[in-house]
Design a protein that fits this description.
It contains three helices and no strands. The protein has helices at about 10-35, 40-60, 65-85.
Length: about 90
């Protein structure tokens, strides 16, 4: 019935999303502590990005620990790539 949950791509996708969710929750806590506004759109898109990165990691390296770690760094890597592409 739940065979799809044993699929390595699914597991890595969830691990990547969980990694980014962990990082995002730490950012939310910091924003609350510093009395800053929380950008919900950015929060949701970064978590989604973690799921996608975890899925791609699952294609090349089927290890949930690697997907989790990559999910933690997903937005940092994307932001760095955008800076390199824009030349800034």
């Amino acid at each position: 019935m739940l065979e799809w949950m044993n699929n390595p791509l699914f597991v890595n996708c969830m691990a990547g999303g969980l990694g980014q969710l962990t990082r995002s929750l730490l950012g939310v806590k910091k924003a609350i502590d510093e009395h800053q506004d929380i950008n919900v759109k950015q929060l949701v898109s970064s978590i989604f990005e973690g799921f996608v990165v975890g899925l791609f990691v699952g294609i090349f390296a089927p290890d949930w620990r690697f997907a989790f770690t990559t999910g933690l760094a997903a937005t940092d890597v994307t932001e760095s790539l955008i800076k390199v592409i824009k030349g800034g």
